[in-house]
Write a structure and sequence with these properties.
By secondary structure, this protein is mainly α. The protein contains four helices and no strands. Helix 1 packs antiparallel against helix 2 and helix 1 runs antiparallel to helix 4.
Length: 134
């Protein structure tokens, strides 16, 4: 039980780091005039996000292999990836339509996305915590 909480906490922290990255990049982008400093900041941020996403993806893959019966791994994996790739253009279209309709700044979209990501990961962690306490 304790190990499960630790791995869920890792995924939650990685998700919050992803959301914070979006917000942080927007908030400090106006204060950095030097192109070289912006590139270094982008490189460091990309490494941090790569590590966070790598941890999350690894956790999900390991959990997936443990939970799904060996006979069905190929089928379930195909369905999972199909749904993931099918949702990407739909979400992209919906976001671009909302962006055009609302006529908001790009910075606002990134900040809102960051807060939504943080909220979703924190909420999922709290829900998992409450389920495990029952």
């Amino acid at each position: 039980m304790q190990e499960k909480r630790k791995t869920n906490l890792v995924v939650t922290v990685c998700g919050i780091v992803l959301g914070a990255y979006y917000i942080f990049m927007v908030l400090i982008s106006g204060y950095i005039a030097s192109a070289a400093v912006q590139k270094v900041r982008l490189l460091i941020g990309s490494v941090v996000i790569g590590i966070a996403l790598g941890l999350m993806i690894t956790y999900v893959q390991v959990k997936f292999v443990k939970e799904v019966a060996k006979d069905y791994i190929g089928r379930v994996s195909a369905i999972r990836y199909s749904l993931t790739y099918a949702c990407a253009p739909i979400v992209s279209f919906l976001l671009s339509a909302a962006y055009q309709a609302a006529s908001v700044e790009t910075d606002f979209v990134f900040i809102c996305s960051g807060f939504i990501i943080i909220f979703l990961f924190a909420f999922a962690h709290m829900a998992a915590h409450f389920r495990s306490c029952r």
